[in-house]
Specification:
The complex is a heterodimer of chains A (314) and B (435). Chain A is built from ten helices and nine strands. With 314 residues, chain A is of the alpha+beta class. The two termini of chain A are 26 Å apart. Classes of the chains: A alpha+beta (314), B mainly alpha (435).
Chain lengths: 314, 435
Amino acid sequence: MKNPSRRKFLQMVGVGGVALAAASVGGSAAANEGLKINNDNKAMLYDATRCVGCKACMTTCKRVNHDFGDLSYEQAAFDPDGLWDAPQDLSGDTRTLIKLYKESPTRWSYVKHSCMHCQKPSCVSVCPVGAMTRDPQSGIVAYDKNVCIGCRYCQIGCAFNIPRFQWNKALPQIVKCDMCKSTELPRTGTTGCAGVCPVDAIHFGRRGDLLAMARQRLAEKPEKYIQYIYGEHELGGLDHLYLAGLPFEKLGLPVVGDQAPAVFSEKIQHTIYKGFIAPVALYSSLCYVAIRNMKQGEEKKGTPASAEKKGEDA
Amino acid sequence: MSHHDDYQTHQAKILTPSFYVLLTLTTIGFALVALRFIKGLGAVTNMNDGYPWGIWITYDVATGTAIACGGYAMAILIYIRNHMQYHPMIRSAVLTSLFGYGLAGFSVMVDVGRPWNAYNFFIPAHWQANSAMFEVALCVMAYTTVLLIEFLPAILTTIEEGKWRRLNALLDWLEPVVKPDRDAVNSKLERVRLGAAWLRPKLNKVLIFVIVLGITLPTMHQSSLGSLVLIAATKVHPLWHTGFLPLLFLINCVYIGYSIAIIESVISSYAFKRPFEVKELAGLAKIIPFLTLIWLTVVIGDLAWRGQIGRALALDFYSGFFLLEFCLIAGGSLILFNSRKRESVRWLFLSAALITLGGALYRFNVYLIGFQPGKGWHYFPSLAELMITVGIVAFEILGYQVLVKVFPVLPKLHLNLHLPYGQGRHLPDAKGVKA
């Protein structure tokens, strides 16, 4: 009994070692991309003071993307042009939305809702199978329905409630903006919404350039703007930047702080599972204790009538 | 190492009235599951883009697996802390854990939108080590397998010693119609029996390694269930969002595990008209208040450190739920600190129920009640959604009820007769035991 169990124990340690090696390889592959804000990313600047609320961005977004990601069946049969589609909120078939915030007849503002393309996105951090990805060059956060299991953890993680789920579909998927990465961007070099905007309220470009542009606008017409660029530092930097004349919180852009939640959660998860050492150590030491206990029990037993005796000893 | 003589099959009718009630609930639940797969999640549930996780994840997965931690908590006590006297209780704990975890996995498959892609969990290229859910999913799958292996000896013993009464009755019933070949059937059965007899001692030799794995895995994924909501830093109410979530979830599942072991034992004794295992239960109950004390200390210390004590006492909606959770756990623990009350079945049951409720409420608070995705979002489970959860719970109880009558799961009665408080009492009688 002694030898086989020791051999088994060593085998188990060996298995643990293999697991450890595998985990450390996986760990380096999924290493953090560094938390310095990258200003070379592709980005969009939305200026709420310029927006006239024409919603051309919304219709264009649907038109150019509707064949991509199986959204085409969302079109009603009587509405081939999408003229009567008037979504109230982002949803399983709407990635871009213009909303109106109205405080009084003179104080109001439009606001665009779509993916913020975080530089340290929570959705990418939490997706268990890597269906959400962030391209390190462009910074575009994209979704792959062929990998997604539909667990909706990305929705839990997103501070802006951007990823939307197709609740009414038997074969649902997540829907969110991917900066037209497979449709308009390779064709025209800009996103659908930015390309169509008649008043340049949505501007597509390099993040650093857009920040300079935003600062220039803030300086030129300080009375028009809240002196703040939303997204410059939020959650460790967003690639979708905002300028507005009314407080951002009222427009539905929450106060979220500069810390990316993904940094916090990953730090805890990685501390616990660093190199898979803790679980292997736990397993090995528990094995040692359990086997020692078992052997002691067997030595104590001795007599065949031990089963009855145990009850009394207890 | 093999303690298979510690257990016995409960001799009773399987088709009882409660069997039919539970079967009805299970059928309704599974019919609604079918509807969900045909018409989509929105047709059955009230979940929405603000509350993408509803009662299924909160109850069936996050809370259900904690309630299914009886097997985990008992295994720690028996094999690690070396209290072999509790060994007769392990098999029923493992069986309930098996149901709890197996059906949590089933609930997840009902809940996820694209279950056909779930194979990606097994493709290393898609592994995502940053995701707490990846860790939880793999661990839960592995642990369910481990529980199945831990339960295997009960099945093998039954096959080895089986008289195939039910099968023979079926053959008798078929006799006039199809004339089954009795000799062929018997020789096949003999081969199955020999197979079981061959496997059982081999399994017994390596079982301890599986059992220890069954202690390691819950330690990992129960803490990760806490890590799951760490990411929702802007959504989970500050009363519950803390870096200590993994630790709190881990301790929480252990004291729920011991409490549920007490509750299950008391209910089993009552329902199956067996004597109460008061001495074992009192021993278990002694451990609980120390765990809850540590847990409550971490909760309070963390709130104080983050400067959130004021919110806890604000007496608003969230503070109400926080205080309720706190009082249930603290109240139950106070009862258990009293050694006289620990030896009364009634007090044991009451305090274990309070602690289980409080511990479960904690998980509800973290996953649902304290979850605020923003203005304008509301969630309360729909009737169909609740009925699916009820159906799954009914199936758990149903399965337990049937399997204890088929396999040797419950502790052997002669062991209990040595206990001072169960002495000579074959029928449960709370008053008598209290004295």
